[in-house]
């Protein structure tokens, strides 16, 4: 993996994690935690959306969008586990 692709993945993960923390009413985990949630959310979205028949685009905005949706789903699931 090249440094530039790693940097892009971290940037997209940070943006997606920050957005998901805002969407889920402050349930974020700080900067590092949000990056991790964003990266895992992007991976989750990469698995879920093609299985549902949605095409994941290749642009920066679509990558951030799908990673954010995946991170929101992940934060929702973490919230369910924490309450239980």
Write a compact overview of the structure shown.
The chain has 84 residues and is an all-alpha fold.
Keywords:
about 80 residues, mainly alpha
Structure description:
It is a single chain. The protein has 84 residues and is mainly α. It has 3 helices and no strands. The protein is globular and about 40 Å long. The longest helix has 24 residues, at 60-83. 81% of the residues lie in helices and 0% in strands.
Please trace the helix and strand order, writing H or E for each element. HHH
Percent of residues in helices: over 70%
Unreliable stretches? none
- Global shape: globular
User: Can you count the beta strands?
Assistant: 0
Distance between the termini: 39 Å
Task: Output the radius of gyration.
Answer: 12 Å
- Quaternary organization: single chain
Structural class comes to mainly alpha
Average pLDDT:
82
Number of helices: 3
Strand content: under 5%
* Sheet having the most strands: none
Blueprint (SSEs and pairs):
Blueprint: H1 3-23, H2 30-52, H3 60-83
Helix pairs in contact: 1-2, 1-3, 2-3
